[in-house]
UniProtKB/TrEMBL annotation:
Record's signal peptide: 1-20
Family: Belongs to the PBP/GOBP family.
GO molecular function terms noted in the UniProt entry: odorant binding
UniProt name for this protein: Uncharacterized protein
Main location: secreted
Keyword Signal part of the UniProt annotation: yes
InterPro entries: Odorant-binding_protein, PBP/GOBP, PBP_GOBP_sf
Lineage: Eukaryota, Metazoa, Ecdysozoa, Arthropoda, Hexapoda
Record key words, sorted: Secreted, Signal
One of the Pfam families matching this protein, by short name: PBP_GOBP
Amino acid sequence: MIYCWSNIAFVIVAAATVSGYSFDNSEFNQFLANDLDDLYSNFLHHRARRAPPPEDDRCGPPRHRPKLCCAEEVFKAMHEADRDIKQLCFKEITGMDRPEKPPHFDPFRCENMEKHRSEINCVFQCVAQKKGLADDSGNVIEDEYMKYVKELLAEAPYMNSMVDKIAQDCLKEADTEEASDGGCNPTAIKLAHCLFRDIQLNCPEDQIEDKQSCEMLQERLKSGPPPQSR
């Protein structure tokens, strides 16, 4: 079943955004889209799903995970490890078992854009708290986060020399974030975006299988401004 949830990679941000991650990075947005699709697919218990006709797809280009420069195994392991926690957090935040997916709907562009962005922000905070990476206010617990990044990147030993710098840089980038208007703390989603971006921008040359695709990915990651508070 092809819906706009799978096309977040092509979102153009044209309105006020949730403090923290501003949904302006198409590559990271596609990972968010995959998580949402995964939540929905889990709920369907692998039942056969009919794809809508082409005219029902108003979000444009093809939907697929971006081809990474390296550390594919890291992000796959992270996705699998967080799957059940995200399902639980999504239900806690929204009261629903899975995302609503009505046809002709892009959750990050249409009338409910801010609501859905806020929910994703809160899901990331919830996941971080359940994993012991954030306190009750959603602020990152730095020692636990450093340990988490090192354990995560143990799947990619070629990143060993850069682990501390990447983790510390991301902590600094997220350090000034605060919850706004009674919403959730954006630190967790900003850290996730920073980790994704900085790993891809620092892949060792000998680990890059498709240099042309990697260069294109890195250019897209560099061209988008880092998330900022609004």
